[in-house]
Amino acid sequence: MRKYMVTYAWQLLKKEQGLYQLARDIVIMIRVCKMFRQGLRGFREYQIIETAHWKHPAFSFWDTKRQSRVTFDTMDFIAEEGHFPPRAIQIMQKKPSWRTEDEIRAVCNILQVLDSYQNFEEPLQLLLAKVMRFERFGRRRVIIKKGQKGNSFYFIYLGTVAVTKDDDGSSAFLDPHPILLHKGGCFGEMGLLDASLRRATVVCMEETEFLVVDREDFFAYKLDLEVQKDAQCRFEFFRKMDLFASWSDKKLWQLVAVAKIEKFSYGQLISKDFIESSFIMFISKGSCEVLRLLDLAASPSYHKWVWQHLELIDDRPLMTTLREYSPMERYKEFQIKSYPLQDFSSLKLLHLQKAWELQGTSFSGKIRTSGDSLPKMLGPKIKSKPTQSIKCTMINTNLGELPKEAAVGAYVKVHTVEEGEILGLHQLFLPEGEHDTRPFILLSLGSEMIRIRKENFYELIDNDDEMINKLLKLNTAFPSDEDMCQKFLQENSWNVFRKDLLQLLVKHRQSPLFPPIRRKRKGIYDPRSVVLNLCSINKTTKPCYPIFKAPQKYLPPLRIVQGIKAPRYKIQELLPQYKSAGVLI
């Protein structure tokens, strides 16, 4: 019996050890797989890509100009969203001399998504596509170390890097607002030209993909000559400016080393708020516009303008023709509105009291007055036109109530920046309390600009009194929001009047009896989308066209309009001499 119990206990122990060994093996396998995955991230060939299943991945067509068949394989450019395509990685694994012209063109087309790559001229773009190699690094990897000699030139294809002043880049993860470079940025090109030591450390904030140009290839394929041409253009631009007339060539080349050229097409957004930008911008070619997103509901002029036009609504339904007043009635109505708070009953009462006192009698009667009575010098009594109560949703603002639909905004042009002007220095030496903190938008009209970080520029002008005196004269003040709102309302009134006048004077073209049927163009844009119609402000039906809204900092989105359509007098009443259509001025 005792022997049987020992045998049974030994079998249980073996089973428990087997389960323990199995669990231990599973844990070890999981750890090994995790280490294997983490280790592979340092290799350029590693990339997890979900294979796309295409029924016909390749297609071709006959090119009549070249008299040959052109074939395109879609599988060559399939990649995980945002990552560099595997086909392009295979091309970049080849030596530069082994890459064909078609492969270089294909890589050049893929790199057009990088803004810094587009800023170079086409010959330099092709040379870069020929010598680039692909690299991927993980988080906290130091790419460039401060104080070391530069050996490579980097383009960021995916991810984010930080620029710091320490050696290991650890301060980037502690700083709440580090200097960051994102996809499309580049760094390190000037370090290859002058063989100077690196001034800062660049560290990866996340897994980042780079396109790298090494020093050997940079000089072997004469990329230095093309880069030197761009640097010479920046030097000549700065030399022509009066601001840098007193600087030596050596100091000016230091400015060129920290400056970069960027190109922007027509209508391209440069900065959502260049006041808070960390760059100083020199317009080298073309021009830009400074815009301001104006909240009209915060302007006293807009409040007054809206309610003045809503008073024109009479008891009849909206969008109907307003009753035509005679010139005399219109003049009296103007008198009433001009003196809405004048009440002369007290003066009349005082006059009667003095008259009765002279006659030796007493006066104790009451005089009935009304709000719409006028003194005799302003003519007979008339009744002011009653104000229609607006039945719509109201909102409370700092200036009073306003219809909810009338709380809109508009983009207003503030200033046009021409070639040779500077942005980012107009508030440099102003006291802290006098800084204009309003956000201003910078929009390109087809321009080329040179950007310099403010901290780099401050280091160069330190202890330069002559330069500081010149910068003090560059202070430009932008108009207030109230002035811009008044200008917007004046332009809107003029546009409405001009449109009404053209409709009155120009004879409409007679349409044919059987007009051809035209298909409606599909699109989301509608002219009514950017016009605020105060005449239909109390309608409950929702508009059938889209409404465009712009985001605001710490505030809800604001509807954007380009014009305002409000109740108004007919133009025949304002200009009686043009009551008959067709009369020319």
UniProtKB/TrEMBL annotation:
Function: Essential for male fertility. Plays an important role in spermatogenesis and regulates sperm motility by controlling the development of the flagellar bending of sperm.
PANTHER family for the chain: CYCLIC NUCLEOTIDE-BINDING DOMAIN CONTAINING PROTEIN, CYCLIC NUCLEOTIDE-BINDING DOMAIN-CONTAINING PROTEIN 2
One GO-annotated biological process of the protein: spermatogenesis
Record organism: Sapajus apella (Brown-capped capuchin)
Domain Cyclic nucleotide-binding: 116-218
Gene3D superfamilies linked to this entry: Jelly Rolls (2.60.120.10)
Domain of life (superkingdom): Eukaryota
GO cellular component: cytosol
Name the UniProt record assigns to this protein: Cyclic nucleotide-binding domain-containing protein 2
